[in-house]
């Protein structure tokens, strides 16, 4: 299936299917008939109506087929045609079949604005992310969109690029487009955001967290526990001097929780995470490079650097290579998310696997359940997984002489439930 993107403005995109029609797309079992609330059973041979009858039908001012045209061709009342397209359970199977055949033969497309006015729903969902540059968010958005399609909803996506002052404007713009529900990341948002959503009585799902929000529902995992478990794996390799590269902790509970998880694991060993070794940078490859430059310029260097995203870690790995720092022989580096590139870096990146696709899938199901006031199952607390790869090795002081000269090999996976 091919998709095109229609730009709405500088920060909005709507994904829409294009190309040949199909009845199934992937494991979700999505079909265009379901998305349009049109049963697959309604398809079949075309109506045996002569082209002359179609051509003799009165044309609408726009020249496009109307619902009246559909009713006339199907030889049913206007009300029956409308009910068939709105709620197929209200009409007889024979009537539904004739209406659907007329729709196909005429190429009729329902007026979305009129449908929204009649139903007070747009069958669209808004999602605002901190950034669209993070591959982990991209994976989650993909699963979110696929699942929403299966329920007949379209997705409107936007980002605020970690600019707190911009988030409210972005959220308000999406809400003004009449979405039926909203998905945000994390629980820390300006009070104006929560006030707006609450005033509109808009169903809200907050993702990538299990923290209790002031309004809405959550789908996610424990950021603190994931960082804690990965830090224990780093400590098990003999590391005591550990630095953390993270995003801004202000207005971002996820960043604070990850730093907190590392600090707690170190404290259990009688170690302290030094504040000057917590380096905040934009969550990007460039941010990882800049942070590693600062670390390499320190008089005393850490033996392990834990990055709060894989993109930060990739930048840090690159900077070590540029300066001739052998990873992991001289310094270990870990990431967070387990994006596809994490296993392809040199050396492969130790990280925490976050169930990004599950976050998208369960968020969609939870939000649709809230919108339609039906039980689609309570989303579980999702599990993370510590993934040990070659970028994490023993602390330099613990290496045997022969190990210092060569590259450490081998990998292991340790499952940790959040």
Task: Give a written overview of the molecule.
The protein is an alpha/beta fold and 418 residues long. It folds into three domains: 73 residues, 434 Repressor (Amino-terminal Domain) (Orthogonal Bundle), CATH 1.10.260; 119 residues, Response regulator (Rossmann fold); 156 residues, Rossmann fold (3-Layer(aba) Sandwich), CATH 3.40.50.2300. 39% of the residues lie in helices and 16% in strands. It is built from 15 helices and 14 strands. It has a seven-stranded mixed β-sheet with strand order 1-2-4-3-5-6-7, with helices on both faces. A four-stranded parallel β-sheet has the order 9-8-10-11, with helices on both faces. The longest helix has 17 residues. It is elongated, with a radius of gyration of 27 Å.
Average pLDDT reading = 82
Q: How would you classify the helix and strand content by structural class? A: alpha/beta
Strand portion: 15-25%
CATH architecture of the largest domain: 3-Layer(aba) Sandwich
Helical fraction: 25-40%
Radius of gyration, whole Å:
27 Å
Q: Any idea what the CATH superfamily of the largest domain is called?
A: Response regulator
CATH C-level label of the largest domain: Alpha Beta
Order of helices and strands: EEHHHHHHEHEHEHEEHEHEHEHEEHEHE
Tally the structural domains: 3
Helix count, per DSSP?
Answer: 15
**CATH structural fold name of the largest domain:** Rossmann fold
**Biggest pleated sheet:** 7 strands, mixed
- Global morphology: elongated
Report strand order across the widest sheet: 1-2-4-3-5-6-7
pLDDT < 50 stretches: 1-44, 399-418
Number of strands: 14
Distance between the termini: 36 Å
Region (Disordered): 393-418
Keywords: DNA-binding, Transcription, Transcription regulation
Protein name: Catabolite control protein A
Domain HTH lacI-type: 65-119
